[in-house]
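A further point concerns the way the authors explain their paired sequence and structure data. Nothing conveys this as quickly as seeing an actual entry. An entry of this sort, consisting of the sequence and the corresponding backbone structure tokens, reads as follows:
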Amino acid sequence: MEGDLDPATGTPDTFNAIILEASDGNEYRVFNITTFSSDSGANTTITYYNGSGVHVLDADGDGNNTTPAFDVTFEADGNIVGSSENEVIAGSSQNNLIHGSGGDDVISGGSGNDMLYGDIGDDILDGGAGNDYLTGGTGADTFKAGQGDDRIADYSQTEGDVVDISHVIDTGAGDYLEVNKNLDDGTAKLSILDSSAVEKGSITFDNIDYDTDLTNGDELDSLLGQVDIDDGTV
């Protein structure tokens, strides 16, 4: 899906798929977004398919739509803000900023250095390639991290958060985990290394301090006791 998301330059940005689950129980696949500048401000036309036909919504600059009941804002710089519904939002190859807002959302950042916010609900945040910043918000969130140098802002074991590294680590090939102190701010950094000790990716936990939250001399086990990791093994 491609849309002219930068009215100033006319440079298109590309989104793989955006599926909106509206309050009427139907899913709406957005397949075209066109934005333009005018004297009255930036307008947005969203073309979507709801399983029975193609529809076009003309929205004003804030992206508000009243029919059907979803409200997703596509900002001129390519950023996306979701609604209170359950959405599947996929970013582009650019550096995206995506907010899920309410609902149980599935958000993929693509290959850029993205900032993903689940906000409210049980969300799945997949930064993809690049160095991504992931914030789950409230709810039991799943962070698919580690394909770059990623950061998780608010991991909470109490809320049921999970860090999924199964798409990065291959334990059968000798990959392993290592924890170190992030020298920039003292936080805990979990690295995924291959059998030759080459780092495949890393996850820094902004709310876990290496010195005060981990047991000296047993840092890895201490971290794994505080973070639920899904490495693809049962």
Observations:
- Residues 1-16, 35-43, 53-70 have pLDDT under 50 and may be disordered.
